[in-house]
Amino acid sequence: MTLRRDLLLRSALLASAGLFSTTPARADTAWNPDRTLRIVVPVAPGGSLDILGRLLAKHLTEALGQNVVTENKPGAGSNIAFELVARAAPDGLTLLVGSDPLTINPALYPRVGFDPVRDFSPVIEAVRAPQVLVVHPSAPVRDVAGFIAWARQADGKLTLASQGNGSIGHLAGALFAQDAGLGFTHVPYRGGGPAVIDLVAGHIQALFVTLPAAIEHIRAGRLRALAVTSAKRVPALPEVPTIAESGFPEFEVITWQGILAPAQTPPAAIRRLAGALDRILAKPEVAEQLTAQGFEVTSQGPAQFAHLIQAEARRWPALVRRTGAQPD
After folding, report:
1. Rg (alpha carbons) of the chain, rounded to whole number
2. Could you tell me what percentage of the chain is helix, strand and coil, using 3-state DSSP and rounding each to the nearest 5?
3. How many angstroms separate the CA atoms of 79 and 33, rounded?
4. Nearest to 195 by CA among 135, 140, 258
5. Alpha carbon of 317 to those of 1, 87, 327: distances in Å?
6. pLDDT of 89-112, one tens digit each?
7. What is the DSSP letter of 77?
8. CA 114 to CA 102: how far, in whole Å?
9. How does pLDDT run across 219-240, given as a tens digit for each residue?
10. What are the b/e assignments for 22-42, b being 16+ CB within 10 Å?
11. What is the DSSP letter of 37?
12. Kind of pairing, strands 159-162 and 185-188?
């Protein structure tokens, strides 16, 4: 009896100290399934980041039993959205669809209100994709060699657009111009969607943009794809060559896209979100939809994603200097 009373007393003391419980504690106490979770998209509707954000929001709503919405916050080369999320409450209810400009912009702009490593908690790298060089079907070119000849004839006046200043498309175009010895008139947009719409309408002449933003227009014949920037051809468009095989063997530009939260978001919330997103990306219908749009599903967790962001933050300053790219 004495031993039994001693065990009961010890259990009571542990419970009163919060160290013993018959039900698991929830470390991310800020999470409330009755509150709406928002995914901030740093570009206008229609681009590849918007496509990914909306798809993940739809499935997260089902996976978490919680209302999940997307909010498009374009502007300032995506810096508006980056700063908004960096300053948001770290309660697991504000997320960012992040991509290369998160690590490019600190090297491109004289001042930004965020640090890509210090101010964010990586959740999951979802996908990667190449850029694609596209022109209007009326353009007098069908391959990279013809495009170079066309650009040289235009003597720097050919309009080459991108999804924004400092975007991966902007830098892909700058690298290509440097390697080919060409001049272009850069036309930045507030996302891939508006840029694609203007190219379809014939308001610009050429565009470097993330493949998923343009792939349906390419398939429908509303745009002509000249080349992709990956090292190998893309399964979704196997007939489109790479820039590397078009005379520039070292050329490769790949974009990554993933979900991040503000720094100091509770680890339990990060684990919960990463687990849910990993299961979503593993669904055959989701993976097939993303692959058909030109994405490669990577589904790299918080640690691997953090390593990628750190490496990208170290890589881009030298490449920005090499291209001479500036926020126009």
Report:
1. 23
2. 45, 20, 35
3. 29
4. 135
5. 72, 24, 14
6. 999 999 999 999 999 999 999 899
7. G
8. 9
9. 999 999 999 999 999 999 999 9
10. eeeeeebebbeeeeebbbbbb
11. E
12. parallel
